[in-house]
Each structure stands twice: as C-alpha cells, then as structure tokens.
C-alpha cells in the first residue's frame, strides 16, 4: 500500500489526496437550528474566547509579560498562558478576568444582573 504525500494548503489544512482544501462559509444559526446543545456549546466557546482575549489585551496594555502578571496574581506563568489560550472548557471565569483587571488597573463593569419579571 502506497501512502500519498500530505499537501498543505494556504489555510494550513492538510489533505492526503494532494488536492487543495476549500474554505466554506458556514452560517452558525443555520447549522445550530434545532440543536440546543450545540448552540449552548458554541456560545460557551465564544464567552471563553472573549474572556481570554480580554485578559491578553489588559496584560499587553499594562505592559506586562505573562510571568509578571502571574507573579502579581499569585499563579504560575503557564496558568496565564492557558487562560489566554482558552482551550475548550478551560476559559477564564469572570472572577479571574476581574482579578486581572484590578492588577492591570482597568475598570471592569460588574456583570449584568438578570432581571426577573413579576
């Protein structure tokens, strides 16, 4: 059995048949229609990525590297790297984003309280 060589495309997608992979635009609403669990997972991933982005931006604006921020927060540098990467299920909590904001001297508004109807 002969293995075909891997081909790397401009987008970094690897195909085994040597053809270029095409980028396909996907409408998330259409994809998740009637799939509440998929929608919940998608929205959770978005929140994790936004929290990670906020931590990285605040750290950079404060002129700190990951090790300096970690020392000020009392955590390790790899922990900061993981928070900024926000891998699935390991995104930063609001409390951690708030701690970073305090250390970096940013004003972060409190989370919006959900109102209940009478």
What does this molecule look like?
By secondary structure, the protein is mainly α. It has a domain at 29-103: lambda repressor-like DNA-binding domains (434 Repressor (Amino-terminal Domain), Orthogonal Bundle), CATH 1.10.260. 49% of the residues lie in helices and 3% in strands. It has helices at residues 28-32, 36-61, 66-73, 77-85, 94-103; strands at residues 7-8, 14-15. Strand 1 (7-8) and strand 2 (14-15) form a beta hairpin. Helix 3 (66-73) packs across helix 4. It is extended. The termini are far apart. Mean pLDDT is 78; it is low at 2-10.
Keyword list:
2 strands, 118 residues, 49% helix, mainly alpha, extended, disordered N terminus, 3% strand, 434 Repressor (Amino-terminal Domain), 5 helices, two-stranded antiparallel ribbon, single chain
Task: Give the strand order, joined by hyphens, for the main sheet.
Answer: 1-2
The CATH class designation of the domain at 29-103 is Mainly Alpha
What characterizes the major β-sheet? 2 strands, antiparallel
N→C terminal distance: 70 Å
Name the beta content range.
under 5%
Q: Per CATH, what is the topology of the domain at 29-103?
A: 434 Repressor (Amino-terminal Domain)
What is the element string, with H for helices and E for strands? EEHHHHH
The gyration radius over C-alpha positions equals 20 Å
So how many helices? 5
Q: Which stretches are poorly predicted, pLDDT < 50 over at least 5 residues?
A: 2-10
> Helix proportion of residues, in percent?
40-55%
Please tell me the overall pLDDT.
Answer: 78
- What is the molecular shape? extended
Number of strands: 2
Would you identify the CATH architecture of the domain at 29-103? Orthogonal Bundle
The CATH homologous superfamily of the domain at 29-103 is termed lambda repressor-like DNA-binding domains
Helix/sheet category = mainly alpha
């Amino acid at each position: 059995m002969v293995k075909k060589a891997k081909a790397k495309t401009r987008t970094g997608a690897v195909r085994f048949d040597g053809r270029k992979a095409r980028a396909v635009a996907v409408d998330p609403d259409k994809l998740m229609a009637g799939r509440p669990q998929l929608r919940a997972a998608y929205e959770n991933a978005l929140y994790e990525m936004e929290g990670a982005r906020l931590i990285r931006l605040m750290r950079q604006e404060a002129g700190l590297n990951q090790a300096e921020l970690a020392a000020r927060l009392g955590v390790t540098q790899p922990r900061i790297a993981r928070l900024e990467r926000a891998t699935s299920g390991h995104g930063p909590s609001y409390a951690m984003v708030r701690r970073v904001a305090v250390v970096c001297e940013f004003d972060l508004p409190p989370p919006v309280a959900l109102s209940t109807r009478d």
